[in-house]
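Hi there. Long-time user, first ticket. I'm pasting a complex I've been working with (about 964 residues overall). I'd like to know whether the download I got is complete or cut off, because the file seemed smaller than I expected. Thanks.
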Amino acid sequence: MTAKHDETRRRLLEAAGEVFADKGYRAATIREICRRAKANIAAVNYYFGDKQGLYVAVVGYAHGKEEGLPLPECDSIAPPEDRLRGFIEQVLSTHFEEKGPPWRARLMIREMAEPTEACAALVDAYVRPRAELLHEILGELLPPETSEADRHLVAFSIVGQCLFHRARNPVAEMLSNGLSRQFDVKRLADHITRFTLAALGRAEPIGRSVGRFGESDRRATFSSGAVSLLGNPRRAPTRRE
Amino acid sequence: MTAKHDETRRRLLEAAGEVFADKGYRAATIREICRRAKANIAAVNYYFGDKQGLYVAVVGYAHGKEEGLPLPECDSIAPPEDRLRGFIEQVLSTHFEEKGPPWRARLMIREMAEPTEACAALVDAYVRPRAELLHEILGELLPPETSEADRHLVAFSIVGQCLFHRARNPVAEMLSNGLSRQFDVKRLADHITRFTLAALGRAEPIGRSVGRFGESDRRATFSSGAVSLLGNPRRAPTRRE
Amino acid sequence: MTAKHDETRRRLLEAAGEVFADKGYRAATIREICRRAKANIAAVNYYFGDKQGLYVAVVGYAHGKEEGLPLPECDSIAPPEDRLRGFIEQVLSTHFEEKGPPWRARLMIREMAEPTEACAALVDAYVRPRAELLHEILGELLPPETSEADRHLVAFSIVGQCLFHRARNPVAEMLSNGLSRQFDVKRLADHITRFTLAALGRAEPIGRSVGRFGESDRRATFSSGAVSLLGNPRRAPTRRE
Amino acid sequence: MTAKHDETRRRLLEAAGEVFADKGYRAATIREICRRAKANIAAVNYYFGDKQGLYVAVVGYAHGKEEGLPLPECDSIAPPEDRLRGFIEQVLSTHFEEKGPPWRARLMIREMAEPTEACAALVDAYVRPRAELLHEILGELLPPETSEADRHLVAFSIVGQCLFHRARNPVAEMLSNGLSRQFDVKRLADHITRFTLAALGRAEPIGRSVGRFGESDRRATFSSGAVSLLGNPRRAPTRRE
DNA sequence: AATGAATGAGCCTTCATTCAT
DNA sequence: GATGAATGAAGGCTCATTCAT
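Hi, the file is complete. Here it is re-exported in full:
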């Protein structure tokens, strides 16, 4: 009975994803995974060979085609500022709102921090497409003569800002006494987008700066919504204009 | 003999730091730690009660006063741009060049990613002083009326950019085919400092942007050294001026 | 379809014989047997009840009528010395040249060394006929008044010499540095036959002995071929003469 | 406490020897071994690393110096016939009367039949000394011009006769209905010694043979005691005479 | 009739821990 | 105080076996 077979297999993957994400590869036990999946302890060996085989399968499953994380669906014709914001928001929501399997993002971070043999699959299925998308967007936001190295650095700065907020939670809580709970995906996306665009000279700087690079007639409400900003072609014109 | 006692204890802490940093809490074994420390296998329980007690002690030891990581020694009277760059460079070099016990930074990252009860001590000894320093610097770079939440967001953007490069390595290697090896501490510090200052309107934007927020007479060599930039009070004036 | 049924059953027996002979009962796994037989993993239980049932069936199959090891086909009218040599040669070649299923002899040895419930069947099908044949031959070589116990002892001495060379291999290699590779079936049969006949006073002693029991006009080439010896009725007369 | 340590270790070796000898390496479980030795299940790992380490240690222990099987103590000046009988009797009694650890002989046979990495140690400690002793004895019983290959064949015939009686038991019982119980070590030694000496022309042939190689005035009681035979220098003169 | 899915007992091993010096 | 011996719990994994088609 292939239906039941696949169902059991799926339950194992789900349970394993959760446990691996929670405790890490080493601390996770196949006994607990099987218990959660209501499967026999020998099922892991039967379906995946061994614990490591299960782990690799879980990482693959997390980003499998049919259930994979969608790439930000940006109209290619949208202005690059909008597309950048879409990208940032999607990355953030992947890790905050945890759409799909709630353990996916946690598992991903673990795998990247301590890569195993499953890392290559993860990079191919998840990281590379997003990296290429981001570089395409940056291609429109940066001058054409920008070196590849510089484009990488900018990309790292963007992704770094996004991913930091995943690890930030527990520590930041200790520092800021709950302040960070105000930061939902939308607000973080606003900030990172504006911070980045300002760094690229595509939006007004953060804060109210003085001196040569600043402006005096800045709107105070800028940080409340990058969407409206980005929707305004006059203030952040695309290179295509 | 208390001297020998303390010496053994210290060797245990050193060995444990290395092993915990390399393999994580779970995968680290007391046997290996004691073997490396040339101590008896019962020594851990004798000196620290149990494995977890050793771990907590290691985290504390890593940031103990006498050997703790130095805060960036910035002259309080230096311009905030310089102080920011000093801060960024120090954070980067902590994780890249791994001064002091070579395992300290790795252990720190691990602990923050998966906080245990030792996390609080880590935050108190390491994170909080740096957070306060950064906020002090930002206090001079941002307009005084900036909300505390916004200041936090900026701080997160800065630290996020810095810490990302620790986890970036293995994955980025897969993507960029060795490109990232070009990025040493100095170059990364240059980039992050300039990116941040530009976002805050304290430096020229990245790339050669056009339009309203850009400039046309930009020096092409800017990215090659933020020091010279920061050393120029005219171009990045402190608020104190 | 009974033809396919029997065919699968036969393939299982063949595969099981090989694996059991190679690895022993315990170390043999049903999985490997079924894999080799290209049968389902449940086939063993289906056809033979359980692992032990399969083993017993294999032992029986190994000596089944249609494929059983042939008894030495000695003319009953041939001289007993010749018949003895035929017997010895056949026993040796059974274990050395491994005619028939190549695993049969190995499995037999295993079963005799550690008898299971399959041993009785093996004795009935294989051992007893040969034992009776040997005793019949010895009946002609030994004086009629020889006690049954003595006849058994002689039989044991003959079979012991033959079977020893199966187990001898690995150990003897260590001792004699490849010397034993010189000993093919023919040479061993020559030696054992002559050794035995000499012990029974039916051939000249081994070596060139001196004194009362020896002879002085011995042919030096005796050991090169017992066949010629046995083919000479004058020198090894049967009791019938 | 080293006394207790060694005592536990010894108990483990004894228990393991018994279980390995009874069931073979694979079927033996360290659980049973530890249970019999009244030791914890982790003791095997502690003392010997793993199951295989225990096995190798057991084989070594079985033939360790202080407890090793004694070589037959033959006066070098005794006639070689006597020394041969001493050798045969000692080999037989090793396997029948099982002096020392009652499992030693069984374990040895197992190891030789299916050699593991412990086999080399066994050969060095046990087999080689006996092989050399036997060849030394044969050197006196065989003419000096006998080839080395022939000497090996004779040695194999002797050892084959002896060892066969270990495996013979279960099977022979089935054939001879308890007859073989009459054969104690002494009687078997008598037979094998005489059979061999007769084959070498150093004693009268077995049975009451007729014809060219036999004698007519043979004593009927010969087989009842080889000792008296061997003690009679006239009938089985040594080469030294 | 014949199969693939699924099971649970039990294997060896490792580990942190404790005990008795 | 400080150590090596010894422990028991638990881990991953394998296996013969059974069940539901």
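A couple of notes from our side: Chain B touches chain A through 72 residues (CB under 8 Å). The CA atoms of residues 34 and 40 of chain B lie 6 Å apart.
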